[in-house]
Amino acid sequence: MKLPIFVLFATLSGAAQNIRVVRFSESDPFRMGEVTSRRIIHPGLGAKKTTLNLSVSQAGAEFAQHVHDYSDDTILVLQGEVNLRQGDSLHLFKAGECAFVPTGQIHGTITAGTGDTVMISFQNPPDLILYTGARDSKRPGAAPPKGVITPGAVKYVNFKEKQGPFTSADLGSNRATGSHFQLKKGQKFRTEVKTGGEQLLFVWRGGLRVKHGKTTYTAGERDTVFISGDAKLEVIGDAAGESEIIQVQAP
Predict the structure, then answer these.
(1) What integer pLDDT is reported at residue 17 of this predicted model?
(2) 100 and 185 together in one domain
(3) How far lies 232's CA from each of 5, 129, 203, 229, in Å?
(4) Nearest CA to 206 among 156, 246, 251, 162?
(5) In sequence order, what are the residues at sequence separation of 6 or more whose Cβ sits closer than 8 angstroms to the Cβ of residue 214?
(6) Cα Rg, the chain, nearest whole Å
(7) Do 101 and 164 sit in the same domain of this protein?
């Protein structure tokens, strides 16, 4: 007799209980303003401390201004360029750069340039309201976002030049740390998740293998390895060229 998937999942080893490879094809769409995004890691998968979303925004398209009442938002441009909008203010940032937006700051994006822009973002902790459309200030009859615009509060960082952390407490990022890695085939690093913590490894280019004990997980482009709870991991580049990985750690 075949066991239901959830029963089978629960009967696997400890390594399998708290590590999951989320394929990009499993992500769910949500819309804000003129941009349709995909939620990849979210509370529906059991995430309590972080999310991961991916947006492909066409030239001139606006991701509506909004506010996260209790969450910090980190936005990375992986391809193209975009303006971060706060009221009438626009700040251009491009592929390889990110914006750290603290809780309560009004923000949105407008795609610059002539081609599509690809972005990922992670909110810490998760903001469930974002996925309902209730934060979409461009909806007919919607009220403007309730928040603040504090000059200098949003911090901009070149993550592409980092081999390791690109956000830190110095930026005000106390709820999660974002890191960037470029790994040649076979190149590796070790990482750890504490009890109660969460981590994700998003593959932008290439592929990776993640070893936990005797179990190995593989992920390809736009796939994500999500880890919840105590784990010690070895992360290995697994593509002919370089693999580019974004790691988010939420202790």
Answers:
(1) 53
(2) no
(3) 25, 33, 19, 10
(4) 246
(5) 15
(6) 18
(7) yes
From the number of C-beta atoms within 10 Å of its C-beta (0-12, 13-18, 19+), residue 135 rates as: buried
What is the residue range of 121's domain? 27-171
* Same-domain status, 39 and 56: yes
Q: What percent of the chain has pLDDT over 70?
A: 93
Residue with tokens 């509370």: 43
73 and 11 in one domain?
Answer: no
Q: Looking at residues 106-130, what average pLDDT do you find?
A: 96
Q: 169, 242, 198: which is closest to 52 by C-alpha?
A: 198
**Last residue of one domain, picked from the residues 146, 171, 196:** 171
Which distant-in-sequence residues (6+ apart) come within 8 Å of 131 by Cβ?
Answer: 30, 39, 42
pLDDT tens-digit series, residues 36-55: 999 999 999 999 999 999 99
Give every CB contact of residue 5 below 8 A, 6+ residues apart in sequence. Answer: none
User: Per the structure block, which two tokens stand in for 26?
Assistant: 């499993």
Statement: residue 128 has pLDDT above 80: yes
Here the CATH number for the domain that contains residue 223 is: 2.60.120.10
Distance between CA atoms of 218 and 21, rounded to whole angstroms?
7
pLDDT for the residue numbered 113: 87
- How many domains is the chain partitioned into structurally? 2
Give the model's confidence band at 12: pLDDT under 50 very low, under 70 low, under 90 confident, else very high.
Answer: very low
Tell whether 141 and 194 lie within a shared domain: no
